[in-house]
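Sequence design from tokenized structure. All designs in this work follow the same two-part layout: the structure record, then the generated sequence. An example of the structure record is given first.
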């Protein structure tokens, strides 16, 4: 396999091929996931929960993201590499956001991801115009779970759905080249995916997105506590971690994961 470029990813999307993404936080898993055929690795700020034992992603610092991005970049071979801008690093000004994006980019991230609706368009434009590809993130945005009053499906009513779609279109117009949609009704995610030209990567957003992402520890059944409905345990019936990841990639590419009833809203 050759290294996946931004154009390569967009071309695949244009051909209707699904994109399989997983979160990744270290070099060993980066090599394993890459060799198993994962298209894109996300150094998610979910590392706050998964690695650091925090109750949310809010306490994650930019230096933590830089450290883990560097670890993943060393293990990665061909997969596209994204990293999250952590809470506080992009909320104040586009300039502050750019400085944080530069840190992640220098650490090896090929694309930075930030959460939020219309208010982020100026920042998305600022960063993308200056040469760092940007992924937007709408729906349930874990960094603002306090303001959202919990982990709930977003865009359930007509007004919420219309707002989400308008935000998605505005973010694409501002230069976002990918969008993560988290915890939204499958029908809304399908509608937004149809309306956009950029790839829409779903998590708890049903089967009709351009690709899927899961938290690595969730799909390997390493997370404690209740498993959210949209997570599938790929270790069940797998002979190894590699086999579980290969199954995930295969099911995303075939469109058989997520299952409309089992994993959707
Ligand atoms: O931090 C993360 O793991 C994420 C994905 C769940 C999309 O942002
Ligand atoms: Na995240």
């Amino acid at each position: 396999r050759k290294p996946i470029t931004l154009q390569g990813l967009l071309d695949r999307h244009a051909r209707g091929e699904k994109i399989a993404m997983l979160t990744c936080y270290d070099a060993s898993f980066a090599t394993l996931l890459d060799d198993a055929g994962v298209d894109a690795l996300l150094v998610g700020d979910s590392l706050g929960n998964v690695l650091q034992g925090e109750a949310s992603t809010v306490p994650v610092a930019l230096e933590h993201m830089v450290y883990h991005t560097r670890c993943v970049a060393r293990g990665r071979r061909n997969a596209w590499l994204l990293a999250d801008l952590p809470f506080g690093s992009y909320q104040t000004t586009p300039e502050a956001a750019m400085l944080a994006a530069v840190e992640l980019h220098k650490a090896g991230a090929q694309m930075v991801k930030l959460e939020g609706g219309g208010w982020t368009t100026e920042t998305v434009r600022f960063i993308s115009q200056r040469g760092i590809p940007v992924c937007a993130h709408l729906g349930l945005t874990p960094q603002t779970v306090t303001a959202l009053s919990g982990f709930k499906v977003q865009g359930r009513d007509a007004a919420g759905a219309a707002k989400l779609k308008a935000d998605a279109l505005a973010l694409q117009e501002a230069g976002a080249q990918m969008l993560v949609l988290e915890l939204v009704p499958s029908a809304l995610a399908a509608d937004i995916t149809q309306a956009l030209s950029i790839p829409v990567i779903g998590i708890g957003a049903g089967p009709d997105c351009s690709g899927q992402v899961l938290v690595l520890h969730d799909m390997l059944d390493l997370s404690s506590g209740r498993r959210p409905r949209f997570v599938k345990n790929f270790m069940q019936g797998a002979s190894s971690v590699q086999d579980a990841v290969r199954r995930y990639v295969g099911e995303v590419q075939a469109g058989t994961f997520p299952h409309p009833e089992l994993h959707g809203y």
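The chain has a mean pLDDT of 97. We note this feature because it recurs in several other targets discussed in the main text.
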